[in-house]
Write a structure and sequence with these properties.
Blueprint: H1 4-19, H2 28-35, H3 46-51, H4 54-64, H5 66-71, H6 75-85, H7 110-113, H8 119-142, H9 145-152, H10 157-161, H11 174-192, H12 202-221, H13 232-258, H14 267-271, H15 284-304, E1 309-316, E2 331-334, E3 337-345, H16 351-355, E4 360-362, H17 380-394, H18 400-413, H19 418-421, E5 433-435, H20 471-480
Parallel strand pairs: 1-5
Antiparallel strand pairs: 1-3, 2-3, 3-4
Length: 499
């Protein structure tokens, strides 16, 4: 009988241990007791930030503690870390430390848990600042010139996407550079914000965009006189601008954490409405791919805009409306309307064709390479959809200034995340568009040949103001598509259609 007591005791311990929850299944109240009151507020979301008016709380905190911020060598972050955690080393500076901005010490932190009603907002701000710091560090350190240059360095740029009778050895890089700043801004916002931008984080999106564009501008100016046709050099030029800009952006971390402004924004603008209270930073590869795809698309657009490349459509998907049929493999059916991508190759292969300018329509140079291999990140549907959106916004006048304004508006007002949409985003492509839907009810001569499939004998016939039934708009389209003085579309017309 003297062995029974130890046995019962061991039996109790064994089954009691089985009954205890593991760390992963600890009830919330146990976690709270272990970490203190702050444990109740773990895993905050932007909605939590807004619900508890943390923006107002943070603004008030900065005003009240301005003296502490001024005296602290690490400025705002240093003073906030000291006040919330009792940690004088919480500086969030970019100085090689991996722990000067983490929140691992909030659990059971006496200083923080003694803040009463300020525990929740203080913890939310700690998380937001920490995630913002991580974003900047990753953005600057994760990208290398070689990585993005490799994605952009294509030896076959001109050969793949430029095939005209007036092939030029050099083309100004200026037009691409005009778009680079916008792309970098879009990329910076894409890297820090998850998915479609909602109004909640639009302010942060605008701050990220504006800061990136500001950082890129001086670097872009250094290449203003470079030429596009540098083959592999193109990738190095664009890659160095992108990476140099992103590294410049990362240096702003120290300014913001100190409490200073950068490009007109301070840390409150970046944290506004809880944009960084939840870590949503993108993987390095996703950011590289996104920027590379935008760069590639803009370069292709520049080359195609110098040739007779255009988009025509506006009739029903599937055609059969008496105005011809377009190339189905290079089309998009959108809102019940079909749109087709064309290239009018002027010299069709014979002396007679060249002398009479008849030529033929086919896919644009390199369009058959899109969506695969080196060009897998850009698709024909991107070309058409982006161009349609550009046309709907600014007609034939969508330029780099329009692109910058629209991207900033999308991020500031929160109606779109351009980087999340990809190269189908408006302004990436600005191929001229002609809506021929009105021709269905017209009496234009040979209107059954307005749309044509590709082929050696495919020569559309436009004997009237085919674009929206409007002569002025048709003339604008002809000019935008580089067909001024080009007689092929009207070579069978009984009388000059006027464009």
């Amino acid at each position: 009988m003297h062995h029974s007591t130890p046995f019962v005791y061991l039996h109790f311990l064994f089954f009691s241990a089985l009954a205890l929850p593991t760390t992963d299944t600890l009830p919330t109240n146990i976690i709270h007791r272990r970490c203190g009151t702050v444990g109740q507020f773990y895993n905050p979301t932007p909605a939590d930030w807004q619900k508890y008016n943390v923006d107002v709380w943070l603004s008030s905190w900065i005003i009240i503690h301005q003296s502490d911020i001024s005296k602290n060598t690490a400025g705002f972050a240093g003073a906030f870390g000291q006040w919330t955690l009792g940690n004088p080393d919480w500086s969030c500076r970019d100085e090689g430390s991996t722990s000067n901005c983490d929140t691992d010490t909030v659990c059971d932190n006496r200083v923080l848990n003694d803040k009463g009603k300020d525990i929740r907002p203080a913890y939310y701000v700690l998380e937001g600042v920490s995630h913002l710091h991580t974003y900047f560090m990753n953005l600057g350190a994760s990208l290398e010139v070689s990585a993005i240059a490799a994605a952009l360095s294509k030896d076959s740029w001109a050969l793949t996407f430029y095939n005209d009778k007036d092939v030029q050895s050099t083309t100004a890089l200026k037009e691409i550079l005009n778009a680079v700043g916008t792309i970098i801004g879009i990329g910076a916002a894409f890297a820090g914000l998850a998915g479609p931008i909602e109004g909640a984080v639009a302010g942060a999106g605008a701050a990220l965009y504006g800061g990136a564009v500001g950082a890129a501008t001086p670097l872009i100016g250094q290449h203003a006189d470079d030429t596009f046709q540098k083959s592999a050099d193109l990738g190095l030029i664009l890659g160095s601008i992108v990476v140099g800009s992103l590294k410049a952006i990362s240096l702003t971390n120290n300014k913001l954490m100190h409490g200073d402004q950068y490009q007109g924004n301070d840390i409150k603008d970046y944290l506004r409405k809880g944009a960084f209270v939840k870590n949503v930073a993108k993987e390095k590869s996703l950011v590289i791919d996104m920027m590379s795809n935008f760069m590639v698309a803009n370069a292709i657009n520049l080359l195609w805009r110098q040739q007779k490349v255009f988009i025509m459509g506006g009739g029903a998907c599937g055609d059969k409306q008496g105005i011809g049929e377009g190339p189905q493999s290079y089309s998009v059916c959108r809102d019940g309307k079909a749109w087709y991508l064309y290239y009018w190759k002027e010299n069709g292969g014979g002396v007679d064709l060249t002398s009479h300018q008849w030529g033929r329509v086919e896919h644009p140079p390199g369009a058959d390479q899109l969506g695969q291999g080196d060009w897998s990140g850009v698709k024909v549907s991107d070309v058409i959809n982006s161009s349609l959106d550009s046309y709907n916004v600014a007609g034939y006048s969508y330029d780099s200034n329009t692109a910058a304004t629209r991207a900033k508006s999308a991020l500031t007002d929160g109606w779109r995340n351009p980087g999340d949409q990809g190269p189908s985003w408006e302004g990436t492509f600005t191929i001229p568009v002609c809506d021929v839907g009105s021709a269905i009810s017209s009496s234009y001569f040979d209107k059954a040949y307005i749309l044509q499939d590709y082929g050696m004998e495919s020569r559309p016939v436009w004997c009237g103001p085919v674009c929206n039934g409007d002569l002025i708009k048709t003339k604008q389209f002809i000019n935008a598509a580089n067909m001024q003085g080009f007689k092929s579309p009207k070579h069978l017309c009984p009388q000059d259609p006027g464009y």
